[in-house]
Amino acid sequence: MEATNLADLYGAPLLDWGRIETRLNQGLTQAPETGGPNRHTCWLATINDDGSPHVTGVGALWVGGAFWFETGRATRKAKNISRDPRCTLSVAAQEFDLAVDGEARLVTDPTTVAAMAARWAAEGWPVRTDDSGVALTAEFSAPSAGPPPWYVYHFTPHAATALLTVDPGGATRWTF
């Protein structure tokens, strides 16, 4: 991993990725009053077929050094990812703002899909695998996910930029 101090000109310290990852491992709930500024929303930016950006909120989880999210195959983000997997996911925590560049890939392994369903259920979304075993279903999801079934995506980070919002401040970019 390579780190670049983006706030060196202000005398701010190089941030430690371990501090960022420790916070991500604690979870980023979307419940009100839990994050920065008042809750955590993950924003996913994908690339439209005309090259323009598309940004939408997603319920992402940080698991095993990567973000995971779900969506229906007919959504614009799913269509964009199937054509071009490059995307950016960002989130504001109380301690930092984070943007992560990487690639998202559809996951169809039934064991992995079931494990992610269990993680989302533990976070409060009563989701389960559908009869196919490779997709999710529940009574509800975010409107931007479209109707069920929803498919699981693994977001592999290639680079990340964090801006520390608490003392001592700082901004760092990591390349993985």
Largest sheet descriptor:
9 strands, antiparallel
What CATH first level would be assigned?
Mainly Beta
What is the SS-derived class?
alpha+beta
Radius of gyration: 17 Å
Which architecture would the CATH scheme give at its second level? Roll
**CATH homology superfamily name:** Electron Transport, Fmn-binding Protein, Chain A
Please provide the ordered H/E string of secondary-structure elements.
EHEEEEHEEHEEEE
Low-confidence stretches: none
Shape: globular
Give the helix level as a range of percent: 10-25%
How many helical stretches? 3
Would you summarize the structure shown here?
This protein has helices at 17-25, 76-83, 110-122, and strands at 2-5, 42-47, 53-58, 61-63, 66-71, 86-92, 96-107, 128-129, 136-137, 151-164, 171-175.
Keywords:
alpha+beta, 9-stranded antiparallel beta sheet, 38% strand, 176 residues, two-stranded antiparallel ribbon, Pnp Oxidase, Chain A, 17% helix, 3 helices, globular
